[in-house]
Structure formats: structure tokens, C-alpha cells
Amino acid sequence: MGKTKKKKNENKRVPIVAILGHVDHGKTTILDKIREANVQECEAGGITQKISVFTVAPDCEKDERITFVDTPGHEAFDLMRLRGGSIADIVLLIVAANDGVKPQTKESIAIIKDSTAKPIVVINKCDLPNTDIEKIKRELASEGISVEGMGGEIPVVEVSGKTGKGIPDLLDMINLVIEVEGLQNRGKLLDKVLAKGFVLESVKEKSRGNVSTVVVTQGSIKKGDFIGYEANKEIVIERVKGLISEEGEHIKGFETGCGGKILGLSNILPLGSEIYILEENDKKILHPIQSDEETPEVVVEVEEETVVEEKPTEEGAEPDPEVSFEEFFQMDSNEPEDEVKLLAVMIKSGSEGSLEALQKSLAKIKVEGAELNIIDQGIGDVTIKDIEKAHVTKSIILGFEVGMERNAKELAKKYKVLVRSYAIIYKLIDEIEEALNLLSQPGETEEEIGKAVIKAIFTLSDGQTVLGNRVTEGVLKKSCKCYIVRDDDILAEGRIKSLKINKKDLTQVDKGTDCGVILDVSVDAEEGDEIYCYKIVK
């Protein structure tokens, strides 16, 4: 760690450690090993799709606690990861030993460079055979992350989240960095402001109402406190009705550096916003904050790479839609050709963070001839009102990590409203891209059914031209449309008027058969030209 002198930490608090890295590099698995839980297996598809906050005590005897912020790895959740990194004292950059530096690794590195948090590189999956740790260190160096032993001072720890190897060394390194580097100075609180927190996630739950995941950066929060925040450009002050841990246990409060969920607020708290615990119910306390601390919009550039269902009623089951995309499009097929077609959708998500990620990912989908038109979006289950609006606007409803209100499903069947529900974000994105591609197709298309090569040309006594040929693919059918092609150029287009074998009229000739073809158009054909037979598909 170089020769940095030890700093005094007069205001000891629980340090905040954010975990960043590429999807499937083992961030949650490492955290599971630390707290001996099994969160990863409970995540849809094994992918973390929301931010979680856990405070653990790796060494109870020393009373050393650490708060971990577990962030999503998929590219769609980059802004959520940015928020995780912005309030951390330490950032763990997780890189899989069998995969190396990937797009979200690079994005995480950009977050680290813009942050004042101290980085630690964690090379995971070191239990796998044929890994090249030195190569990964060189890849990191090329991205500006120089670790110890490679000319830099950034600590590096090799671990296996699966076996637990190296996890104690990682915890020791976190504590060592805290001891040597100290914790970030958060500054002083305003007069009559008792605490300050950072909003990482907001959801709307059936039983609990609005629930916000918060990390306390200064002071402490307890049940019954006055909480102030900004919603719809207005300051709102109300009481904290309840606090729970990430595991759902009711707790009395959070101290500095700890986090959890605040229950029962009147509003969905904006992601990345700050909350304040106040001495009294007085909006004037927050006026200096509102005028002096305008939060700029943060935009993260990410490399292009390719990432909701009524919550599955049966474990792992994905309910079949009552209406398919194809059927839905056939209901209203009167749009003129040669115009950009719009796919109207309504989005319902289980949380603000997921909704934001969906909007960002859907905006990236580009399909020539078709565009996405988001009619409405919101948090919470699909309601009867949503179905009625979708019916009127001819929209598809996309639900991510949400269920359906009672009677809404039956109404959707009645109105033939397509409701698609998802538990994994990249499945939603993939299906919508497929739907746009389907919508962009013309009303009619040609489907090839057979091909033949002209072997000889004859002229009958009545002047008709017979093309003697051999069928090389599929079938030739009487009355079907066809092209006569030479060197990829179309010589003529017409229909097969007659199919003959030895003067016998046929309706179809199969592959490998020699036959004679008479067309309904004249064509100056030659031996070696090809006949392409096709049908029109609507």
C-alpha cells in the first residue's frame, strides 16, 4: 500500500464499501461468503437487479463493522452503480480470473477514477484452472488501475467466492485501508439537521407501501424522527414510520455508515437524492440546501454491449401470455406501408431504479421502420386502470418484477390487451427488440419454396417456350410466382402456367426431378439460368 502515513480517525464510524464489476463476475457471491447468506441464488437468473445494503461484523470481538453496498452488474443499471460508488469510502473492483476486464469493468473503473473512494482490486474465481492472474493485472494497468507488484499502490486480493479462499485476507485488507487512509470527511451538518442520508433505491410494495433503501452518511436515523426530502420540486416533512434491515427485520435505527429501508413515506423518493433528519417540523431548515446544493445530472458513457412478468405465480414459472405479439399486431394492420410504425407500450416496474434502467435500455433499441412509443410508466402492480388505458391507446403493458391487481388479468383477456411480465431485464429488452423487428416487416413478404436450373429450352408447335429444368431445392408449383435469374440479375417475373413431365400435366414437382415449365410471360432465357419459385406470405 505504499508509504502513506497513518491518518487519525477521530470520528470513528462504520465504513461504506461498494462492490462494482462486470455482470457474473461474482460480486454477490463474495458478499454471500462474507455474511454467510445465500442472496445470489434468490436473484432472478442469478443476476443482482437492485441495490442492497448490508452491515456485517466480520470480527465481533473487535466490534469492527462494515457496510457493503451490493450493486447490479448489468450494463442497464450503470446509474445505480454510480450512486453506489458515490457514497463509498472503499470500492471493491471485482474481476473474474477466467474472464478479465469487460465492459462493465471499464465502466466501474471510470466510476472509481471520478470518486474519492479508495479502490481495492479483488480477483475472484481463483479456484478455477488455467487462469492467468498476471494477464488480468496487465489489462487493469492498461485501463489506468495499477496494482501493487505492477508499479502501482492499489491493493489486490485473490479470492474465491465459491470456496471462501482469500475472503479473510480481503476483510483484513479493507480494515487496513481504513486504518491507514481513514474515512471520507462528510463535512458539517446544517443547524437543526441531525442526520443526512443518500437514497439508493425506491420501490412500492403491496403490504408496506413506499419503501426506500438509504445509506446514512452523517448522524443517525430512528423511528419517529422528522424526515425531510424533496418530491415534485417541493420540500416534504413527515415522520419516519418504520425502519427495517435488508433481511426484513424491524430495527430501531441506523447510525452513520449503516443502511436499510425506510417504510411508509408518502412519496417514492427520487434515486440519488438526499434525505435529512430534522430537529423539528420546519421546512425553513432545508431552504439553504435547496438553493445552494443543486445536484447536477450525471451521465455515464458506457460501451455498447448486449441487458417484467406478472411476478411468477409459481416458482420460476413464466406465465404464458393470453395474446402473442403476432396476434396483437394483426388486430390493427391498417397502417400505411412505407411509414415508421410505432409500438405503443406502458411500463410498470417494481422500483424506481429498475424503471430508470428500463428506460435507458429501451431508448438504445434502434430498428429501421419501427419505433417504441412509451405511453405511460410507473411503479407498482398492473392495475385495472392500466388495462383500460392500454385498451384505449392500443398499448402493450410491460411489467418488470410486478404482479397484477385482482380482476386485471380477466379484463386484459376481455379487451385482448397484451401484458408481458418479466423477472430478468435482458429478456424484456430482447423481446421488445424482436417485437419491433416483427412490426417493421412489410404487410406481405415473399417466401421462397423452390429453385430449379434451366438445362434446355424448347419451342412447341404453337409457339410456346418450354424451359427444361431440374429442381435443385424445394418444389416448383403450378400457378406460383417465380423469377428467372441470371448471375443474380432478375430477367423476368411471372407465374408458372404449366408443369409437365413427358407431356403429363402436374401441379407440383419435387427436388431432384426433371420437368418442363411454361411461364405466363415471354423471357429470353439461356441454359444455366435459374428459376426461383415463391409464395406471398401476409
Description:
By secondary structure, the chain is of the alpha+beta class. It has four domains: 16-181, Rossmann fold, CATH 3.40.50.300; 193-290, Elongation Factor Tu (Ef-tu), domain 3 (Beta Barrel), CATH 2.40.30.10; 325-440, Rossmann fold (3-Layer(aba) Sandwich); 445-537, Elongation Factor Tu (Ef-tu), domain 3 (Beta Barrel). It is 22% helix and 35% strand. The chain is built from twelve helices and 27 strands. The protein has helices spanning 27-35, 39-42, 78-86, 103-114, 133-142, 167-181, 287-292, 325-330, 352-363, 384-393, 408-415, 425-440; strands at residues 16-21, 52-59, 64-70, 90-96, 118-124, 156-158, 193-205, 209-218, 221-222, 226-231, 234-239, 242-244, 253-254, 259-265, 274-278, 341-349, 370-379, 396-400, 419-422, 445-459, 465-477, 481-486, 489-501, 504-506, 508-510, 514-519, 530-537. The strands form five sheets. The chain has a seven-stranded antiparallel beta sheet, with helices on one face. Strands 2-3-1-4-5-6 form a six-stranded mixed beta sheet, sandwiched between helices. Strands 20-21-26-23-22-27 form a six-stranded antiparallel beta barrel. Helix 3 (78-86) runs parallel beside helix 4 and helix 10 packs parallel to helix 11 (408-415). The protein is elongated and about 105 Å long.
